[in-house]
Each structure stands twice: as structure tokens, then as C-alpha cells.
UniProtKB/TrEMBL annotation, chain A:
Keywords of this entry: Plasmid
Any Pfam family: FAS1_DH_region
Higher taxonomy: Bacteria, Pseudomonadati, Pseudomonadota, Alphaproteobacteria, Sphingomonadales
Every FAS1-like dehydratase domain range: 22-159
Stored InterPro entries: FAS1-like_DH_region (IPR039569), HotDog_dom_sf (IPR029069)
The protein, known as: FAS1-like dehydratase domain-containing protein
KW 4Fe-4S (keyword) present: no
Automatic annotation (TrEMBL), chain B:
MaoC-like domain mapped to chain residues: 18-109
Protein name: MaoC-like domain-containing protein
Keywords of this entry: Plasmid
Pfam families: MaoC_dehydratas
Record flagged with keyword Electron transport: no
Top-level lineage group: Bacteria
Amino acid sequence: MEEATTLVTPQMEASKGVWHSFETSFPITATDIRRWAIATYWGQMPPRLFWDEEYARTTRWGGIVAPEDFNPFAWQLPRELTEEELRLQGAIPGQETKKGDNILNGGQVDRFGARMRPGDVISSRSRLTHWEEREGRNGLTLYTYNETEWTNQRGEWVKSRVMTLIHY
Amino acid sequence: MSIFFEDIAVGDQIPAFTRKTTMMEWSRFAAVNEEFVYVHMDDEAGQAAGQPGAFGMGNLRWAYMLNALRDWAGDESEIRELAMQFRAINQKNDILSTRAVVVEKSVADDGAALIHLQIDVENQDGKGTSPGRAIVAVPSRA
């Protein structure tokens, strides 16, 4: 079998720097926030800021806010996934993966702005900013850097993330 | 209850947030974050990706670090930045502990009192899995 010389696709070249994946979340609910906090603090009571409105009103935030890592885009309505989205699912049981189709989250850098609150509707957009390829322990490896930006319904900046995906 | 800028010194280490990560912790997180990715749920898929079995989510380690920062800094503080590299894979039943050390104090242009931390999430062997940095704005008495 011929060895791949690059994992960079024409689609990547064409999409570099172009904002895409414009999404709008469902309104965040207090239940969404409480469940998130319970899951990540499992084994102990989560902070009252995430579930006790009376307490949260006494803080500088004036009410319940979401954890910084809360994802309002989880559990959007189900839909047909594109071929690219299916590919990004990575290894699938019983299915041999092609070179480059194994994908790991290599890390991320987040900057946080306005806190997310119950009732907020978050808008998101993403773009592929750049990439690099090098030989790693799994052979040719591609690192892609994707930027995502979130704003709320008041136009306030909520979060920016630059995520590294490792393809091998 | 909150910390104050003046009470924090370079070299301070913040209390760890520690969890043993079993399929229970992963499943709870997958259920809120819709992170039902085969390599995190299915041993066969994890093996196909070159691991001993299903492995943990980087995002859950990320959450543990945020939990540690919040528990330390208190509700009046504000996490402004978090950066983490997922350098090693978190295997099933690993005991993960956050590690964060104050490396710098500064005042931002907007007057915010900032604490800069060097961070990592270590496993039960003391091996770092997720090196990075954090910036937290904390209350000041000034």
C-alpha cells in the first residue's frame, strides 16, 4: 500500500480561515447547568453558584451562572451527519480506519468573557486557522487548529477557543 | 468565601481536585456533553485506536482543572483563560489529580488583579498528562 505523503486535503486548503458552522443553541436552562455541575463534580455537592438561585443572587454574578466549560450545544436536535462529521467520530468498532482517520483532542486554549446564564442563547462560529504536519510515533501526523467563537443574545463575547486536533 | 490577591504568593500550590475515573464518571460526562464517542465508550474502538481499551475524555480533565480553580478562588473570582495540552491518554480507573502552582501576579489594563498558574493533571503514578496554564482574576483589598 502506498504511504500517504500528506493528510492535508483540498477541502482544508479551501476552508482555511473561512468562518463556518454557524449555530444557535437552545436557551440554556437551570436544569442543564445543574446536571453539568453534578456530572463534573460527581462524588461531592457542586458549588451552590450552579444550582441555588437564592445564594447565587448574593454573589457578584447576581444569579445562577454556568460553569465556564458548559456546552450549550450538547443535545441539539438529531440530524443527518455529513461524511466529514462521521469521519471525525474517529475509530468505529469493527471498521478499519484509514490513515488520518484516527483523531485525538490535542488540547485547547480558551479565553472566557461573559458568563452563561439560564435563558441565554449562544451563537457559535468556527474556522480552521492553520495546520502543521510532522512525523510522530504513529507515523505521519497532522495537527489542525480550529478557532471557535461564542456570543450571547446580547452580542456579548462569551468565549473563544483554539482547539488542536491530532489526525494520524 | 474568596481569596484575595494580596494573600497569594508566587510558589503557592492550590488544593488538588482528585477523581478516580471509571466508566461511571465518563458516562455521566458523556450524558451531559453528548460526548458519546466510540473511543471513549467502547474497548474495541479504543484498541483499534492503539490503546488498551476505551480511554478518558480530555474535556473531563479540563473540567477537573476548572473545578480545582473555582474551589480555590471562590465565587467572586473569574477564570479568564485556560490552556491545556492533552499529551497523555487517561486510561480507565486512573486516579487523576490536578496540580496548579502560582507562577506570577499581575494587574491587567482594566485593573483586574490576575493570578497566573502553571497547571497539569497527574495520574496515580505522578505522571503529568495535561500541561498548561491558567489566568484567574481575583478580588483585591486595594
